[in-house]
């Protein structure tokens, strides 16, 4: 992005407490919970300009801006959200939320269970994308938003967008589904299981109750992140960035870090395992596995989308093999067969699945153009 676009500036996370039990897909209920969120821009008088950002596996509510002047890391989608940016806070009231089960402030496995005074740990329920959407709808009610101008998300966030359009068809005007899929392939489920096994078999996991042992399964989480990260990058992008470069210029004939790609992956794994919660990682990957909105319609996605009223923008990236363009085209075909309004763009990119977080010019142009039309159609 060119640097004349300004940031949303300094932001503060907010907290909403809910004391009405939330029924969950697994048959249990969450009796009380908190959700952490951030907002950018102003809700207009007609309350018609709200945009919900749904985060992916390792994302959170901190979508844009910084917490203080010394904060080196802006929100995870700061390139996309702000004044003059594609999701323009001069026009939209943008909401970023940390999903239930997260580890950035919303109630999750590391939170204290009011019934015991101890962290939930293994007692925290497994959640689904539908559960998240219902909890997000309650937050929208709390913020006075009856209908979103747009619900936007990439990857697992895109699955939430799809579910929003199905569960609450009257509450979504535009659905932007980016680098996503109508359900995971067997290969994707397999990747998730290997990542979970790395955590579950770590001696420091303690069946999910590692908090009371004052430890964490960092080795398992580190391996899970390293594996995941490989799947987020494209072969071409990885080759272009690292190739077969050796750190010392020659073979060392040992098992320490020798190739630059090894160094990069270990850095990513170490950093992630220090800031993320292993139980949250398990929970998020399981929600990915379970997502299948056509499961209730005899695996007929067109039928599952029959009641949606939103206009759709579906975006995929050429080198994304974790959520390939073919998977986005499945969504597009089902929407077309259901006679829905859908635009589809396949963006040339070397960034693989992570492209939805990048600023490929074609991608930014598409988002800007579509959301400009959304802004122009707002009821003021």
From TrEMBL:
It is an enzyme of class 2 (transferase). It catalyses: L-homoserine + succinyl-CoA = O-succinyl-L-homoserine + CoA. Its main location: cytoplasm. Pfam families: Abhydrolase_1 (PF00561). Pathway: Amino-acid biosynthesis; L-methionine biosynthesis via de novo pathway; O-succinyl-L-homoserine from L-homoserine: step 1/1. Substrate binds at residues 225, 354. The keyword Amino-acid biosynthesis applies. The active site is at 155 (nucleophile), 320, 353. The record marks 322 as: Important for acyl-CoA specificity. Homodimer. Belongs to the AB hydrolase superfamily. MetX family. This is Homoserine O-succinyltransferase. The lineage of its organism: Bacteria, Pseudomonadati, Pseudomonadota, Betaproteobacteria, Neisseriales. The gene is metXS.
């Amino acid at each position: 992005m060119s640097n004349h676009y300004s940031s949303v500036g300094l932001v503060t996370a907010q907290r909403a407490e809910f004391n009405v039990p939330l029924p969950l897909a697994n048959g249990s209920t969450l009796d009380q919970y908190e959700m952490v969120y951030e907002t950018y821009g102003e809700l207009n008088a007609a309350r018609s300009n709200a945009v919900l950002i749904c985060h992916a596996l390792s994302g959170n509510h901190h979508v844009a801006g910084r917490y203080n002047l010394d904060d080196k890391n802006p929100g995870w989608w700061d390139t996309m959200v702000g004044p003059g940016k594609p999701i323009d806070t001069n026009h939209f009231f943008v909401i970023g939320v940390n999903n239930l089960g997260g580890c950035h402030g919303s109630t999750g496995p590391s939170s204290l269970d009011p019934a015991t005074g101890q962290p939930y740990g293994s007692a925290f329920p497994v959640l689904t994308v539908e559960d998240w959407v219902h909890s997000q709808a309650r937050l929208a009610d709390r913020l006075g938003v009856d209908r979103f101008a747009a619900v936007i998300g990439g990857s697992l966030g895109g699955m939430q967008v799809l579910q929003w359009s199905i569960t609450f068809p009257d509450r979504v005007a535009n659905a932007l589904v980016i680098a996503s899929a109508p359900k995971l392939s067997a290969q994707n489920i397999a990747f998730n299981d290997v990542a979970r096994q790395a955590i579950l078999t770590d001696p420091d996991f303690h069946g999910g109750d590692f908090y009371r042992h004052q430890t964490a399964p960092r080795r398992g989480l580190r391996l899970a992140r390293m594996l995941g990260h490989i799947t987020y990058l494209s072969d071409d992008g990885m080759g272009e960035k690292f190739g077969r470069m050796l750190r010392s210029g020659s073979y060392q004939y040992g098992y320490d870090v020798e190739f630059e790609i090894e160094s990069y992956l270990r850095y990513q794994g170490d950093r992630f395992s220090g800031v993320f919660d292993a139980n949250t990682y398990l929970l998020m990957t399981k929600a990915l596995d379970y997502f299948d909105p056509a499961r209730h319609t005899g695996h007929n996605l067109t039928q599952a989308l029959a009641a949606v009223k939103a206009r759709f923008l579906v975006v995929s990236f050429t080198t994304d093999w974790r959520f390939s363009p073919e998977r986005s085209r499945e969504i597009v075909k089902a929407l077309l067969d259901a006679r829905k309004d859908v635009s589809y763009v396949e963006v040339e990119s070397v960034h693989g699945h992570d492209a939805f977080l990048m600023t490929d010019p074609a991608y930014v142009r598409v988002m800007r153009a579509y959301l400009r039309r959304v802004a122009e159609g707002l009821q003021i």
